[in-house]
Amino acid sequence: MAKVNIKSEKITPFGGIYYASKAFYALSLDKVINGTLGVRSSTYNGYQWDEIMSAMSDVFLCGGDCVEDVNRSECHLRESPEVRISTSHTIGRAIKEHSHEDMEYKSSSGNVFRFNTNPRLNDLLMKLNMKMGLFKSGQTVNVDFDHVFVKTEKADATYSYKQAYGY
Fold it and tell me: Which end of the chain has fewer CB atoms within 10 angstroms, the N or the C?
């Protein structure tokens, strides 16, 4: 017969995310992020880049599908001793700090395509992959990306060749 022990009075539906948070810091991903993107805030209570990215990934790993979902799950996510969770407004402002101008490509048929290569965030992505051992130094890797069109009725959505508004 299995024996059950109650380890804490606090039960959270997102307890599994604490293991992901521990791995995040055990792999020193916070140091890679802050080292690549620099210091975001010099005040004690300001959020650094690693905390912003950790909060974003926690939300999506817990089933959220937009940054605002941090507001629904923050009471549970704050139970983790390793994590400081910022508000969705702070995350949104931080994301905008790394915005980069879109590039435009006009095809021979006259269609205009916009895309964004954001070299600073691409550099961070490669460094994180190296740190996690997914890529090795000196290894040649072809990195491909695919565009995903997300239909939405939000005010800043644009009309697409898919005959719908979205991103």
Answer: N
